[in-house]
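Notes from hallway chat w/ T.B., transcribed later so I don't forget. T.B. wanted the structure written out for a chain they're using in a teaching module, and asked if we could keep both sequence and structure tokens in one place. Agreed to drop them here.
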Amino acid sequence: MNHLKTFVLLAALTALFGAVGLWLGGATGMLIALVVVGVMNLFSYWNADKIVLRLYRAQPVDETHPNAMVRAYVSDVLEMARDAGLPRPKVAIIPNDQPNAFATGRDPQNAAVCATTGLLDMLTRDEVRAVMAHELAHVKNRDTLTMTVTATVAGAISALANFALIFGGDRDRPGGIVGTIALMLLAPMSAALVQMAISRSREYEADRVGAEIAGDPHALASALQKIEAHARRVVNHTAERNPASAQLFIINPLSGQGADNLFSTHPATGNRVRALMEMAERLGVRARPAGSAPAPVAPPAFAAIVGTSVPTTMDRPRGPWG
């Protein structure tokens, strides 16, 4: 089913790309656009994960990291991957104050999971485990190929629409400059709608499988609520400059800009939490009693851990790691 979804999504995006090419340059323009997007799809299959990791300055970490919190994070990810029957993934940290996480890679053998420094800084260890289990679920479901390739192609559609505004507004084309402006607006919106068609169900499924991997639907529900609340107040500037990559994250990183929610690729967090609570009830999983977590402590500044400057945009509670 995931392979079918990938094929349908790529076919729709390719058709949209070709339609823009047809409008810009007739049959020749469409042919050129289809060849370009075909090459891009092939390139994205092999390289989109590397592009995304480089874009967000993801820094690989392993069990030998000098910081105990990072070692625990890596250990938990590798343990859950092993228990889920997955190959050993690459584990990375993204120097960003917004709490969030994503997975990428064309298949489980080439997967990488990433958490932001803001996520590790804010959540409890159980909540971080649950979030990373969600990302491992994307790997297990082979969603990462869909996410990386569509992010690349959707970005190309937006770029082509902007190109149309600069070079395509002559009077000989249907609609003239008005048609060009309409194309510039509608093409990226259509690409976003295609992404949304499969993204929401994919997130619900990753929540379900992730809760099974971590064994704690309550921890994932709690983490989603915390991330949602803080993502709305901390702007992820890299995501804002590259909105096509927003679908990769567990919570929409563009929430810091309210208008970006119009075409969110993520289901409403309240609905996701409700589904997890229903799952916990069916399985008879009880939440951790209030107050049983270790007392909050202030972990070392992650700017020092990752060796780069991380701007602090808000005061927030620190995540206890017992």
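Follow-up for T.B.: The chain has a mean pLDDT of 78. Might be a good example for the class.
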